[in-house]
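Lab notebook, entry 242. We have the chain sequence and a SMILES string for S-adenosylmethionine, and the next step in the workflow is to get a structural model of the bound complex before anyone spends time on docking refinements. Request logged below.

Task: model protein plus S-adenosylmethionine, output structure tokens.
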Amino acid sequence: MTLSSHPPLFGRRMGRPLTPAKKELLTTTLPLLSFSVPENNPLSLTSLFPTQAPLHLEIGFGTGHHLLSQLLGNPEDNFIGCEPYMGGIAAFLKKMEGHSVDLARIKIYTKDGQSLLHGMPPHSCTTLFVLFPDPWPKKRHLKRRFLNQDTLAQIFRVLTEGGIFTFASDIEDYFEQVLKICHAMDSLVLETQGILENTQETSQRPLHWPLTRFEGKAHREGRICNYASFKKKTEKILDKSL
Ligand SMILES: C[S@@+](CC[C@H](N)C(=O)[O-])C[C@H]1O[C@@H](n2cnc3c(N)ncnc32)[C@H](O)[C@@H]1O
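Result returned:
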């Protein structure tokens, strides 16, 4: 699929009016962190980050609970957060203000995650997260779901050998669909899979970071959450399986 044939971006770019402080962050801090993806060449990570380090990418970070916890937990690494919703980006920037984060380590892409994936160089991400992507439950909207055969092939392409893709969803058929596509890719192996029933304490979930906003909402509303991580096999293991 070429860039121009991508389906349009669905979902909201703007929400409720922002507070003056958040508006200010979007006009002062965001331009320092945002970047665009060149149309024809892969994105140059060396021009994006002053220091070479493992790169972590989160697509659809919402208000950034998880992204911030990863940033704070991996103080030497580089991060890209992708989120088209301006209210979410502003909330993330506000949260980040309360911590001493080296801004050279974090970049924000404010457009569609598909165009980012297509522009990323191969084997560039150590970890890639898509947590609680928009569910689009109606049959006629299924094609709008972010994770599909094409995006998962791109995710696989941009992962480093040994890199980890983690996703979570409270929509069972979406989760199963992603699981099926990942299992069909010989070079991805399931690392961890977990489920949190609505009767369980959230402390029993198989993740080591704070609840994301949508995850918290799913628990409060009694929906079951599913989590899975896949690892990209190394060339060595791939050779053996040929
Ligand atoms: C259901 S929310 C989950 C947000 C967050 N991950 C969480 O768990 O709280 C899905 C997020 O994906 C973002 N999103 C939707 N389509 C996207 C796309 N094509 N590329 C990147 N992000 C997208 C939305 O703006 C929204 O913030």
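Notes for the group: DSSP finds ten helices and seven strands in the chain. Worth checking against the assay data. The chain has a mean pLDDT of 90.
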